[in-house]
Design brief:
Helix content: 25-40%
Shape: globular
Radius of gyration: 18 Å
Strand order of the largest sheet: 8-9-10-3-11-12
Number of helices: 9
Largest sheet: 6 strands, mixed
Structural class: alpha/beta
Length: 258
């Protein structure tokens, strides 16, 4: 089976800073894949490359067997047009650290906007699907609330519903709980657990070790733009092979306990 995501020696720099220094990994269809690591390790940049928000400098990056941001023709790679890129980006739904909701639009309008504009879905159909998605993430009856009238956890769940509304093949989560107060984290994680239980392909950058351990099929550790270790969750947390991984987990566990 073709991997949902396949990366081979992916590199990305911003000026003189090498952010991704040869990342290679694969994510299977239906897999929940966790990525952990310190700030500045390249985790978020890697997600943004998958979603075509950043372009890689070298290496190969495929989503569902297609080059990300490029098309192979006559043995050469050609950049996708804006329209082609938009169509490709629809296959990956992104949930950001900050909710990025439109403040002047209701929860329902935030969710329905993408399908109406990008997928050309009739408004009535998009709104019906939007209400169903908001129900699924535990926001029944809050369709007409504006972001300022919602808690941070509720706003993040609107953002998850918005990503799902595009019917993506892959859901990408970039530290989805990092901007939340501690008491609001559990509701968002529970929503993500429900999605994982549906067999969705998910790549989750997170510092929530319990979620990574209990929900993810495999977990990778990134540091300084390198993929240090990748293993099944039980092996990763139970017997990490690399000293750098062990040191990071010990530090994070100590911080959590404190």
């Amino acid at each position: 089976m073709i991997p949902a995501v396949l990366a081979r020696d992916v590199r990305k720099s911003f000026g003189a800073v090498d952010v991704l220094r040869g990342v290679s990994l694969d994510v299977k269809v239906g897999e929940v894949f966790g990525i952990i690591g310190p700030s500045g390790s390249g985790k978020s940049t890697f997600l943004r490359c998958i979603n075509s928000l950043e372009t890689i400098d070298s290496g190969d990056l495929y989503v569902n067997g297609e080059f990300v941001g490029h098309r192979l023709r006559d043995g050469r790679l050609h950049e996708l047009s804006d329209r082609e890129l938009s169509a490709q980006r629809m296959r990956t739904g992104m949930v950001f650290q900050r909710f990025n909701l439109f403040a002047h639009m209701s929860a329902l309008d935030n969710v329905a906007l993408g399908p109406i504009i990008v997928r050309k879905m009739p408004r009535g159909e998009a709104e019906a699907e939007g209400r169903s998605l908001l129900d699924r993430v535990g926001l029944e009856g809050l369709y007409n609330r504006y972001p300022a009238q919602l808690s941070g956890g509720q706003q993040q769940r609107v953002a998850i519903a918005r990503a799902m509304a595009m019917r993506p093949d892959i859901l990408l989560f970039d530290e989805p709980t990092s901007a939340l107060d501690p008491e609001l984290v559990d509701d968002v994680l529970e929503t993500m657990k429900q999605l994982a239980g549906e067999g969705r392909t998910m790549i989750v950058v997170t510092h929530e070790l319990s979620f990574a351990r209990d929900v993810c099929d495999r977990v990778a550790f990134m540091d300084q733009g390198l993929l240090i270790e990748c293993a099944a969750a039980a092996e990763f947390f139970g017997a990490p092979r690399m000293q750098r991984t062990r040191d990071f987990l010990q530090r994070l566990n100590a911080t959590t306990r404190a």
